[in-house]
Amino acid sequence: MFWKNKSENKIDSQQLAMIEHARKRIRQKRGFHNHFIISIFLIVCSLLVNFLFNYQSEFTLFNTSWSYVISAILGVILVIHFLKVYVFYTFMGKVWESKHMEFLIEKQAIKVEKLKRSMDKEALLKAQSEWNNENQNRNVTIIAAAAENNVIGRNNDLIWHLSDDLKHFKNLTKGHHVIMGRKTFESIPKALPNRTNVVITRQKDYFAEGAIVVNSIESALALCLDDNRPFIIGGGEIYRQAMALADCIELTRVHENFEGDTFFPNIDNVVWQEVWRENHDKDDKHNYAFSFIRYKKRKQ
Ligand SMILES: NC(=O)c1ccc[n+]([C@@H]2O[C@H](COP(=O)([O-])OP(=O)(O)OC[C@H]3O[C@@H](n4cnc5c(N)ncnc54)[C@H](OP(=O)(O)O)[C@@H]3O)[C@@H](O)[C@H]2O)c1
């Protein structure tokens, strides 16, 4: 990543500067050390010459021997050098060091923060793609039986009895979540066995025996995230709202027109594609001809 290399390079250059600083300090100390030895040597020599030979020249300063003057000058230079190396520069050096340490720590903190953020982003992307994969395989299915004129019920009850359709319904929904409106739940004798019954109502204190009660379709679907094929089983009001959320419709089309008060929504061919159909004729057990039709939502 571009930012990573850039920041790593910056840190490397700061580390190099610190090494260079350390080298400079060694050179300065070595220089002072040499200066000290040479100065001491010269001072001792001049004092020794002066003392051994009692050598006096014409040159005096404030009535002082030349060797004392030279020694004093060398001593002053030595002290200045000492102060420079061990007092001023050490002091400055510490400031420099701590300043640069702070800089390095700050840079490292930024780097760690960026790494953390990129990890968070990666984790988020991973979670999102996992969620997408899971939901790609998820198949929210509307299951309904509707007459040619889309009637599905009258007086909160079904209108026809088609045994093969009931078997079809049972086979498909067995082991899955069945999501229904409060009125449909009240139209059946009891919660459907071998399925997880989910009832949708706006009532906050509604109790449905053998079923989970939720207050919206979205909550119902969120409840069955572990089910790869939750079924929306009616009635009319719930079907209308679920059309936008569903991926598939398992429709039993009863080839007859009926009087009724509840309707299945119109299936728009632009949105839905018929992918499978099985026709059943009228017979001894079935008063009406019907077809099982599967629709899949077209990819937008
Ligand atoms: N032929 C078939 O395949 C089939 C299948 C199922 C049902 N049916 C028939 O359909 C009829 C029942 O359908 P219906 O349309 O009258 O009623 P419904 O859809 O079963 O239930 C409607 C109720 O659901 C709740 N509800 C709806 N939308 C909601 C939302 N967004 N948030 C929270 N709660 C919501 C409300 O309950 P509250 O009033 O308690 O708030 C509303 O009164 C019956 O005749 C039944 O036999 C036919």
Label this structure with key terms:
binds NADP nicotinamide-adenine-dinucleotide phosphate, Dihydrofolate Reductase, subunit A, single chain, 300 residues, disordered N terminus, alpha/beta, two-stranded antiparallel ribbon
What ligands can be seen in this structure?
Answer: NADP nicotinamide-adenine-dinucleotide phosphate
Structural class: alpha/beta
Overall pLDDT: 85
Tally of helical segments: 6
Main sheet overview: 8 strands, mixed
Structure description:
With 300 residues, the chain is an alpha/beta fold. It folds into 2 domains: 2-132; 138-297, Dihydrofolate Reductase, subunit A, CATH 3.40.430.10. It is built from 6 helices and 10 strands; from the N terminus they run ααββαβαββαβαββββ. The strands form 2 sheets. An 8-stranded mixed beta sheet has the order 5-4-3-6-1-7-10-9. Strand 3, helix 4 and strand 4 (196-200) form a beta-alpha-beta unit. Helix 1 runs antiparallel to helix 2. The radius of gyration is 46 Å and the shape is rod-shaped. Mean pLDDT is 85; it is low at 1-8. Bound molecules: NADP nicotinamide-adenine-dinucleotide phosphate.
